[in-house]
Specification:
Layout (H helix, E strand, L loop, with lengths): L23 H25 L15 H11 L1 H4 L4 H35 L12
Length: 130
């Protein structure tokens, strides 16, 4: 055995901080985007927490991403198209549960009232008791 090569694999040090499943250029791009994101967050915090805001620039600060979001929310009605799927969804979510709950409550009340009127339940055991 002294002259034979070992069939066991050599152990390597596994470090998840240095080993990646992406190429080097992709890793650099990811790091660059993270750096840009942190810089934008820092700028946003600086603008939001500025105690002198409004003294040198009139009005609130402008954020294009927030403006796009608000514009999208306000113009949602203009882009809505009523289709059969939308009507069925609205019926199943709004109208159907209300009708089912109303019918079940009415059915339970009629059943209870029928027992009361037939004398199956004595007056002292009736629900609700105040």
């Amino acid at each position: 055995m002294s002259g034979e090569k070992s069939t066991m694999r050599t152990k390597f040090k596994w470090d998840p901080r240095t080993m990646y499943d992406v190429t080097e250029s992709e890793r650099k791009a990811i790091l660059q985007r993270a750096k840009l994101r942190s810089a934008m967050k820092a700028e946003w915090q600086k603008k939001v927490s500025d105690p002198m805001q409004g003294t040198y620039e009139p009005g609130p600060f402008f954020d294009p991403a927030a403006q796009r979001y608000y514009s999208m929310r306000m113009s949602r009605k203009n882009h809505f198209q009523q289709r059969p799927g939308n009507v069925i969804f609205a019926f199943c979510v709004v109208i159907l549960p209300i009708c089912l709950i109303t019918c079940s409550l009415q059915w339970a009340r009629e059943k209870r009232e029928k027992k009361y009127r037939s004398g199956e339940v004595p007056y002292t055991k009736r629900w609700p008791q105040w």
